[in-house]
């Protein structure tokens, strides 16, 4: 990350207004952090504490947060710096309660805690991050930015599952969607790349990282997404199955005698690319395909088939598509996935420029042919920057 550390080490002076936002992203087994200087959106510090609760890692999230604080202190960029304006926290599940970035109070924290049953792996880690940061700097504004929020505009026809309405209502069972910060950022950046007002542009965003999701964004407003009640639904992912017939779960319980937790682990941690071929990293799958490995080939084909299905489905949802945007680890880096996903779609107005697509380059760029009615773009996501912007806007009032 580019640095302005000499600037950071200088004594800020007590009366100075803070212009930096610390972004904390506490995942189930890691804490990622970035310090964002809002004046020029540079990153004076960034890093990750990994393997929380694992051998060789730190004990728990509280310890991980203390490690983050110590690292920042050691660089002269600690939480006590007067340059710090606020802390922004990525919070995975906002339920139906939180549809916008929210200034954290005791009441808000209690409400985030009440949503733990909807995100048992993620929200507790986010909550610990908030608690530790508030303890270290009680005076500082802290903002929660929810992964579900951008999807709150999805109409009922797309958000509801066709199950017993009273049961769904009672247990909050509906499509919430995730990766919302990324879908929002990338859909806007795609409009900017096209030189158009986001309000006039319809985009299918394909966020393809280790987790993966697609969204349909009409004029800047999300109208459908592939993840659902949990991040398990939709696309094939690194270790998650994505869509399966729910009957698979009953079959495993009845015929294989598996328990709920075993099935949860199977579908979330041992499926997807990993389940199909033993590797969840698209780079390794590419290497193995080049050596003629049939399992890797099948995993790639299943991954791409699902992706194309969603592109087709969201084309129908939007009616008119102006752009398809690829983002995150696979979307930004795998020319092979983009090529396979976009091939033969001239009928949908999509024509890839294979030469442009194969070029590795930083920054947002078009990879479609000039004749393509639908633009195909590679747009690097930057969730931390999006969280920092939301946080700073709210903290400054
Ligand atoms: P993310 O969750 O966005 O960090 O994406 C992580 C995933 O991106 C990895 O598991 C890889 O499958 C994929 N990835 C990263 N770099 C590359 C690359 N150069 N080519 C293909 N896939 C990549």
TrEMBL record:
Keyword field: ATP-binding, Cytoplasm, Kinase, Magnesium, Metal-binding, Nucleotide-binding, Transferase
Cofactor binding, note field: Mg(2+). Can also accept Mn(2+).
Residue(s) at site: Transition state stabilizer: 179, 240
CDD domains given in the database record: ASKHA_NBD_AcK_PK
Known EC number: 2.7.2.1
Residues the record lists as binding Mg(2+): 25, 383
Subunit-level organization: Homodimer.
Protein name per the record: Acetate kinase
Organism of provenance: Actinacidiphila polyblastidii
Lineage: Bacteria, Bacillati, Actinomycetota, Actinomycetes, Kitasatosporales
């Amino acid at each position: 990350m580019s640095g302005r550390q000499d600037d950071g080490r200088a004594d800020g002076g007590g009366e100075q207004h803070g212009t930096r936002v610390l972004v904390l992203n506490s995942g189930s087994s890691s804490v990622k952090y970035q310090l964002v200087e809002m004046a020029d959106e540079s990153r004076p510090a960034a890093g990750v504490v990994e393997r929380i609760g694992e051998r060789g890692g730190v004990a728990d999230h509280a310890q991980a947060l203390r490690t983050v604080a110590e690292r920042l202190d050691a660089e002269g960029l600690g939480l006590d710096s007067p340059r710090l304006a606020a802390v922004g926290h990525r919070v995975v599940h906002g339920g139906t309660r939180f549809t916008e970035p929210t200034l954290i109070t005791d009441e808000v924290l209690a409400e985030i805690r009440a949503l733990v049953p909807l995100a048992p792996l993620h929200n507790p880690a986010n909550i610990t991050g908030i608690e530790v940061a508030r303890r270290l700097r009680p005076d500082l504004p802290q903002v929660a930015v929810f992964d579900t929020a951008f999807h709150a505009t999805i109409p009922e026809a797309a958000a509801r599952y066709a199950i017993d309405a009273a049961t769904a209502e009672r247990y909050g069972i509906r499509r919430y969607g995730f990766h919302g910060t990324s879908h929002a950022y990338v859909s806007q950046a795609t409009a900017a790349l096209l030189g158009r007002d986001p309000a006039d542009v319809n985009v299918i965003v394909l966020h393809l990282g280790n987790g993966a999701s697609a969204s349909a964004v009409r004029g800047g407003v999300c109208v459908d997404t592939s993840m659902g009640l949990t991040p398990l639904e939709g696309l094939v992912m690194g270790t998650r199955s994505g869509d399966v017939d729910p009957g698979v779960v009953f079959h495993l319980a009845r015929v294989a005698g598996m328990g709920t937790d075993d099935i949860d682990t199977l579908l979330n941690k041992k499926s997807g690319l990993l389940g199909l071929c033993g590797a969840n990293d698209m780079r390794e799958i590419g290497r193995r395909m080049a050596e003629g490995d049939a399992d890797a080939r099948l995993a790639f084909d299943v991954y791409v088939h699902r992706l194309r299905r969603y592109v087709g489905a969201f084309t129908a949802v939007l009616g008119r598509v102006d752009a398809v945007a690829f983002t995150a680890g696979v979307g930004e880096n795998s020319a092979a996935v983009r090529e396979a996903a976009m091939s033969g779609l001239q009928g949908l107005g999509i024509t890839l420029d294979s030469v442009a697509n194969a070029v590795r380059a930083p920054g947002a760029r078009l990879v479609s042919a000039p004749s393509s009615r639908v633009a195909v773009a590679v747009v690097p996501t930057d969730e931390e920057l999006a969280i920092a912007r939301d946080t700073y806007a709210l903290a400054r009032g």
